[in-house]
Amino acid sequence: GIKHMETVETVETMETMETMETIRLMYLIQFQQPLTSSPSFQNEGEICENPQFIVGGASRTDICQGDLGDCWLLAAIACLTLNEKLLYRVVPQEQSFSEGYGGIFHFQFWRYGDWVDVVIDDRIPTFNSQLVFTKSAERNEFWSALLEKAYAKLHGSYEALKGGNTTEAMEDFTGGVTEFYEMKEAPKELYKIMKKALERGSMMGCSIDSLVPARFETRTVTGLVKGHAYSVTAVEECKQSQHKEPKVRLVRLRNPWGQVEWNGPWSDNSKEWVSLSKGEKDKLQHQSAEDGEFWMAFDDFKKNYTKIEICNLTPDALEDDKIHKWTVSVNEGRWVRGCSAGGCRNYPDTFWTNPQYRLRLLEEDDDPEDNEVACSFVIALMQKNRRKERKMGANLFTIGFAIYEVSPMHGNKQHMQKDFFLFNSSKARCKSYINLREVTQRFRLSPGEYVIIPSTYEPHQEGEFILRVFSEKRNTSDPQPGPQFCSSPVHQIKIGNGLLVNKDLNTEGFSLECCRSMISLMDMDGTGRLNLQEFRHLWNKIKQWQGIFQHYNSDQASSINSYEMRNAVNDAGFRLNNQLYDIITMRYANESMNIDFDSFISCLVRLEAMFSKSHTNTSPPYYTDPRSVCPLLAMQVWLPYMVM
Questions:
Q1: For residue range 133-171, what is the model confidence (pLDDT) as tens digits?
Q2: Which one of 71, 238, 339, 344 is the catalytic residue?
């Protein structure tokens, strides 16, 4: 026969090249200095006369950074002002300090697949009646300061906003998906990518790396600031008169400080502007002002900045049909220690237990310049609530994902088992595992069926996530349920005829509660006792389950690993979804993530009882339609069975 060779596929993490702290600093805009004052809270009427929510329309000049290290957030807010529809979804404009004023304001943010409304009061941090954090150039305008407060409430505190990534706020304002480009590895068509991105309403930010924490937010001789977030607000190409280069490509950026600008070519007062006609200057809205906004040549932009982030919009972000939209599918999931937190491909014994999502690529791209039959899509894996839980010691996990091609023979809903990943290499995967809130990457694959495996780099790390798939054409992604609800003797294992041997299984007998459950399961006539026929049926069940347990108790340790519990339950004839496997692990696994024989039998007795009580046919029950038992298997009904 054919000898199968186990595939060797090691997942690389940036941790193998440099320390994780160094890599983290490459992507993190952080804040090191303590506040210069002890703020108090005042409402706007105490700060100035005639307070206004918005003065003359919201613009990027309304955002000036204060003492809080949240330039990453303010750079995203500046980008938000470039699109009124996006802005006024986040910042409802009908609010004011006069008509119908009740001392509260509300803002809307995208939160892991849903838009949530955040309500705040009108008191903001001040020192000597001056705003401590974000402020507007207009002393009596407060929309940006109140937006910052609402965003702080979303994450639990102002403190939680110290240090971050511009992409986080961009996505929270739009529900979009962000792509990173390192300038040293940027594609040749980067200018075209940036131009098209702004045309379709995308938000864009950039920064200069500073790997030395002490040098964060330090100015260079050219006026740029290291470790600091900037907004990209325009990309234009202009004609130059009487110049050897007839056209020049320019980029407009904004420093959220509201000051400190680039002083090189094409800065506010540079000599290059004389080569442009008045019409070209008007098109660029050129003006000389110390407002934090400036132009620079695209080539200088590439030389000085180290990375750029582009947040592409999703279909629900805009209603303008002229602007390019994506189709998106959203799946929520979680990694549970001992059950579905299997780690990356470097851990083959547990990798297969991670949540799985089936991806169907149905329509190839329409690009007439490309003869390859392929589908373009973007996968975004986002871990949830880590910033909010930072005060409790939570840090970002190192996360990533892999994509495997599956054949039709595997079925539509089958949870791929360990052997599949041992003998098949991934078709594609993220560039590296990294500890960012979201890992995103663009792919092109042939039409077909694939399975996406999101995971943490290390196993046994618990957390929640959402997995989003964006595409320009019709494609689908669905969670693999692990699999459908049913109970049947599909998996037959050869069982010996020997009786239970307590010594081999390290058990002193079943607990009283387990015995009561057994009697309740098999007592068909309601007498509280088992007749000979009922006992024989129970004993056959126990012997069958003993054989399954011993099959997975390969090291004779009198227990099975919680990750193997999924297969053991399958072999017993039960098909459960991932949520129920998580509950089983939490209820029956010990601190070492092992399940002993007594707990194993108790679990199967309860499963058998659960299915029997919801089924009217003769035992064993069969469930062909999982919807018929959904009410029974709802969490609030299932928990009483599982938790004693």
A1: 988 888 888 898 999 999 999 988 888 888 888 889 999
A2: 71
